[in-house]
Amino acid sequence: RSLKMDLYRPKGAWGTLPAVVCIHGGGWSKGTRVHYEKVAQGLANRGYVTATISYRLSGEAPFPAQIQDCKAAVRYLRANAKEYGIDPTKIAAIGSSAGGHLAALLGTTGEVEELEGKGGNEGISSAIQAVIPMGAQTHLMSERTKEVSRNRDIWKQYLSGSQEENPKAYRLASPMEHLDQDDAVFWFITGENDDKSTRGEEMRGKMASLGLESGIKLIAGAPHGFLHKQGWFDEMIDEAAAFLNRRLK
Helices marked H in 136-248 — which ranges? Predict the structure, then answer.
């Protein structure tokens, strides 16, 4: 099917601006880019060109289709940067839950040919410079993922089996497995009451050993899905914009 994106720009802003790719969640199996329009609008209001993107869901195609579509979106934005007023050297990604995982995978696989796909603009880099994973899994070879993937269909559908059944796919889909010194900087945002695996402790530890910047913001009292409550949403936008301002402006 045709995959589309919706673009947002700050009203009255001229010249080139950093861009943020906004990736919806939904267990890799549901959701649309419309669900992330408020995030895109919130960050556009802070001075960014933002794009909510569509990607194939796991019921249409298993991994790596989803990350290939995200990379195609990055390449498209970079290839058309002049037309849309984007600085092609300053592209970030934000996403929550499954979208946060895809954002993190974007941030660590800029040079992984197997994940590039055939989505157009061949030869244009899909690397990004900053990532905000929210409520996201970044260590897919963990014991927790092994246990969860045994019984949860969203994992089996996305990665064609459990971790034990298809370790190669889980390793390829795990942001932490690809991490090196050339990767993007990360800022985790997660609910205080979400599972601790969303805090990326192993990922942040490995980043520190490589000299890469990372950090985390816990939204006090918030669950896994916190974008529906205005106070939590505003806190997230403030935190995300502060991080992006430090790294991209």
Answer: 143-151, 153-158, 167-173, 175-178, 201-210, 230-248
